[in-house]
Design brief:
This protein is of the alpha+beta class. It has two helices and four strands, in the order βαβββα. 47% of the residues lie in helices and 33% in strands.
């Protein structure tokens, strides 16, 4: 997975960057087919906004969060993305499962008794 981190309206410290990388790269354990990741951190007035985009096989997942400090915003957006990745993985399993189940029932129905 290729990760790109962008900071807007504030300077991104190395510790913040390392923390974000650790949290985002950890998400590969939930779904291993993540092609590209893009994290945009921006400061607006008294809060930080985190926007995380994952490009997966045929779709794109987006999560947004805002909080009083950068680490909390990163945590919130990563939790939202984890939930989306799990849901995406379940949808893929259901699609594969339904195709398999319907083809098996057709085969069973064709067998002579």
């Amino acid at each position: 997975m290729e990760l790109k981190i962008t900071a807007r309206n504030f300077e991104l410290l190395d510790s913040m960057k390392d923390y974000a990388e650790k949290r985002i790269l950890h998400m590969e354990r939930y779904f291993d087919k993540i092609l590209d990741a893009n994290l945009i951190l921006s400061k607006e007035r008294n809060f930080y906004l985190a926007e995380l985009t994952f490009k997966v096989s045929r779709s794109q997942l987006l999560a947004k969060a805002k909080a009083g400090d950068v680490n909390t915003a990163i945590d919130d957006v990563s939790h939202k993305m984890e939930r989306q990745l799990k849901e995406h993985k379940e949808r893929l399993k259901e699609r594969r499962g339904s195709k398999f189940a319907s083809s098996r029932s057709d085969e069973i129905g064709d067998l002579p008794m």
